[in-house]
């Protein structure tokens, strides 16, 4: 089985002296927007590998809730709030150790917003014109025959890559693991960092994007990528019975029990694979070839998912019963993060000429 490295949650009551112990560690940083409730695809593709990586002894991980990015796409306050709690509880329940990582909410670090403005002042407008998300929104207007190509496009969407740059540069991250859709944003962060270093002073590390080839793209109930936008997800945080019900909805063909079946005849095989060892997957392939009934295959799959998530589910429910505990963890993370952010922001302000009069 994939080793997701679950560890108990310990709330910090003191600050760790990061500077002194982490000089040689590689800095890895990634954020998650708070616009939805996590599903199995998010777990397999993002949460499980990031947590496994955060346990590596040679890395120092910064994991955060990108709620200021959330309000760009989502103008439903309840959703933002609910999602912030759900995403935070998900990371913690799945084994994020707030002692070993710096885990925080973007909006709790005002230094990021200050840096965002300074970077806005040195970013070429032309660079933002080329951002995929903005270009896609413009194209949608043009396709609809809108006269104004910027119709209903907000500045938040337009400047989105600058805020993401501030997130990354604030902690001088060396490596930024993201999905393929985010590559351009990390390249822009590199560009902007280089521009600043060149014009003012070598303050920023140039970040590198990390695309993990081994990270699986989980398929959904209908065989397309599992995504909340397609309504084809298996939610993470349901009980065993409901998970079985979701799994029962995975499409299959009409082959009868006893008829040989191939792995590519139903998306359930790919989902099984994400929760099984290679040996178990091979055995499952063999059983299908020997005529395993789809109904039985679905029972085996639900059992696998439920077994891996049993403990995280207990922790998730305890955490969401006590949101104040989550808040405490986030506040401790913010303290840890701000201590570092302040040092860098002071250097940046000084570099651009904003400093005390003496
Ligand atoms: P959604 O497609 O449901 O809106 P997001 O875009 O919010 O999901 O993705 C959050 C994180 O989860 C990203 O890192 C993304 O790469 C990952 N992710 C989302 N769906 C999948 C999937 N089906 N398989 C693997 N990873 C996924
Ligand atoms: N934009 C990213 C996404 O939609 C989330 C994000 C915000 C992020 N800031 C970041 C990712 C900084 C990596 C680094 O998935």
From TrEMBL:
Belongs to the class-I aminoacyl-tRNA synthetase family. The lineage of its organism: Bacteria, Pseudomonadati, Pseudomonadota, Betaproteobacteria, Neisseriales. It catalyses: tRNA(Trp) + L-tryptophan + ATP = L-tryptophyl-tRNA(Trp) + AMP + diphosphate + H(+). Keywords: Aminoacyl-tRNA synthetase, ATP-binding, Cytoplasm, Ligase, Nucleotide-binding, Protein biosynthesis. ATP binds at residues 33-35, 41-42, 179-181, 218, 225-229. Homodimer. Gene3D superfamilies: HUPs, Tyrosyl-Transfer RNA Synthetase. Its main location: cytoplasm. GO terms for molecular function: ATP binding; tryptophan-tRNA ligase activity. This is Tryptophan--tRNA ligase. One of its GO terms (cellular component) is cytosol. L-tryptophan binds at residue 167. A motif ('HIGH' region) lies at residues 34-42. Catalyzes the attachment of tryptophan to tRNA(Trp). A motif ('KMSKS' region) lies at residues 225-229. It comes from the Bacteria. The keyword Thylakoid does not apply.
């Amino acid at each position: 089985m994939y080793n997701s490295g679950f560890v108990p949650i310990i709330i910090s009551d003191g600050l760790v002296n990061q500077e002194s112990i982490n000089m040689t560690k590689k800095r890895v940083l990634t954020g998650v927007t708070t616009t939805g409730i996590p599903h199995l695809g998010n777990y397999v593709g993002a949460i499980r590998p990031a947590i496994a990586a955060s346990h590596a002894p040679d890395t120092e991980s910064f994991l955060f809730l990108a709620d200021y990015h959330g309000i760009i796409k989502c103008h439903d306050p309840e959703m933002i709030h609910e999602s912030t709690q759900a995403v935070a509880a998900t990371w913690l329940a799945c084994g994020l150790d707030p002692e070993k990582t710096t885990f925080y909410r973007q909006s709790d670090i005002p230094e990021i917003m200050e840096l965002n403005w300074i970077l806005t002042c040195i970013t070429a407008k032309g660079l933002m014109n080329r951002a995929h998300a903005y270009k896609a929104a413009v194209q949608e207007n043009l396709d609809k025959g809108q006269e104004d190509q910027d119709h209903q496009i907000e500045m938040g969407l337009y400047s989105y890559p600058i805020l993401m740059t501030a997130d990354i540069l604030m902690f001088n991250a060396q490596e930024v693991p993201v999905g393929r859709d985010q590559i351009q944003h990390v390249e822009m962060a590199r560009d902007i960092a280089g521009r600043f270093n060149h014009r003012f002073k070598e303050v920023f590390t140039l970040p590198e994007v990390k695309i993990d080839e081994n990270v699986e793209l989980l398929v959904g109930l209908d065989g397309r990528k599992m995504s909340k936008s397609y309504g084809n997800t298996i939610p993470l945080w349901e009980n065993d019975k409901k998970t079985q019900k979701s799994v029962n909805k995975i499409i299959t063909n009409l082959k009868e029990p006893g008829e040989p079946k191939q792995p590519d005849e139903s998306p359930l095989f790919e989902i099984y694979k994400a929760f099984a060892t290679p040996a178990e997957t091979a055995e499952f392939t063999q059983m299908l070839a020997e005529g395993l009934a789809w109904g039985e295959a679905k029972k085996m799959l639900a059992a696998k998912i439920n077994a891996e998530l049993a403990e995280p589910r207990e922790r998730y429910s305890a955490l969401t019963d006590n949101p104040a505990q989550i808040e405490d963890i986030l506040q401790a993370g913010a303290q840890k993060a701000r201590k570092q952010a302040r040092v860098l922001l002071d250097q940046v302000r000084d570099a651009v000429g904003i400093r005390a009069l003496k």
